[in-house]
Design goal:
The complex is a heterodimer of chains A (113) and B (113). Chain A contains no helices and eleven strands. By secondary structure, chain A is mainly β. In chain A, the strands form two sheets. In chain A, strands 2, 4, 5, 6, 9, 10 and 11 form a seven-stranded mixed beta sheet that branches. In chain A, a hairpin with a 5-residue loop joins strand 4 and strand 5. Chain B has no helices and eleven strands. The N and C termini of chain B lie far apart (36 Å). Classes of the chains: A mainly beta (113), B mainly beta (113).
């Protein structure tokens, strides 16, 4: 695709349920990043991938959060047993190489009720 | 953890005036980037400046970098209503570009007509 695509754009889930957020990066981009942004706040780094490997997953808030990337392309961020504090916009970005200009998707707004 | 801190947190100026935003960071960097965010969703890359560069221009944007002070500034000249947005600095820490991109807390810029 022409840009980074994230799905769903909005997700409302009940506390305790698992959710999966998907990111389709720009074709050929080797680096992929996940961030979380609460209302009016900055971007909180979660994890980044270089190819299918995750050299830095230090930002994942707890073991309820996991992410994978397959085929050097699509990535999925999974949150298990969601809590209300997980409510935020989850942003994905990709870049041609790690640490270069990043292109962002429009995000997934997650609301845990 | 946040690497960059923007100053001011919010800025309101008259259309046509210049807007200056500052960013300070804590560790050595490979490069520093500025992004714009409208309406709390996807970010748009504005400019990237490498650690061995001191100044860079792109249209009405001018970015400076002072690695000795660990600070950068973004100047938007002749501001327009469309420049109203949040602006974030982001750093790639370390000496290699192969690292995560860490965002600051952002400056909310409002342009008054």
């Amino acid at each position: 695709g022409a840009g980074v695509s994230q799905s769903p754009s909005n997700k409302v889930t009940e506390k305790g349920k698992d959710v999966e957020l998907r990111c389709d990066p720009i074709s050929g981009h080797t680096a992929l990043y996940w961030y979380r942004q609460s209302l009016g706040q900055g971007l909180e780094f979660l994890i980044y991938f270089q190819g299918n490997s995750a050299p830095d997953k230090s930002g994942l808030p707890s073991d309820r959060f996991s992410a994978e990337r397959t085929g050097g392309s699509v990535s999925t961020l999974t949150i298990q047993r969601t809590q209300q504090e997980d409510s935020a916009v989850y942003l994905c970005a990709s870049s041609l190489g790690v640490g270069g200009e990043a292109f962002f998707g429009q995000g997934t707004r997650l609301t845990v009720v | 953890s946040q690497q960059g801190e923007e100053d001011p947190q919010a800025l309101s100026i008259q259309e046509g005036e210049n807007a200056t935003m500052n960013c300070s960071y804590k560790t050595s960097i490979n490069n520093l980037q500025w992004y714009r965010q409208n309406s709390g969703r996807g970010l748009v890359h504005l400019i990237l400046i490498r650690s061995n560069e001191r100044e860079k221009h792109s249209g009405r944007l001018r970015v400076t970098l002072d690695t000795s002070k660990k600070s950068s500034s973004l100047l938007i000249t002749a501001s327009r209503a469309a420049d109203t947005a949040s602006y974030f600095c982001a750093t790639v820490p370390g000496y290699s570009s192969a690292s995560k991109i860490i965002f600051g807390s952002g400056t909310r810029l409002s342009i008054r007509p």
